[in-house]
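Q: Sequence in, structure out?
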Amino acid sequence: MSGAVQELFVAPDGTARGLYGELIDTTAIGSCSVTRASHVEPAPGGGWTADLSPVAGPLLGPFPLRSAALAAEAEWLTRRRLTLPG
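A: Exactly. Output:
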């Protein structure tokens, strides 16, 4: 086991949301759709940005590494788009 985790957030109506990953076989749990929430791209002056405009979010970065931009993207989406209102 790799220790990798993929989270699904389930609403009271049974709708599940999560960041796309390949740890969970979504065909085993029902129908699903994948919607782009951001674009991680090279920044004009160097580094990488995470553009969250597809979900009315900010432009994060630039980050020196693509992996850092991906991590910031995942954190922003998890905190602001996936969790249920508390």
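Residues 9-82 form one domain.
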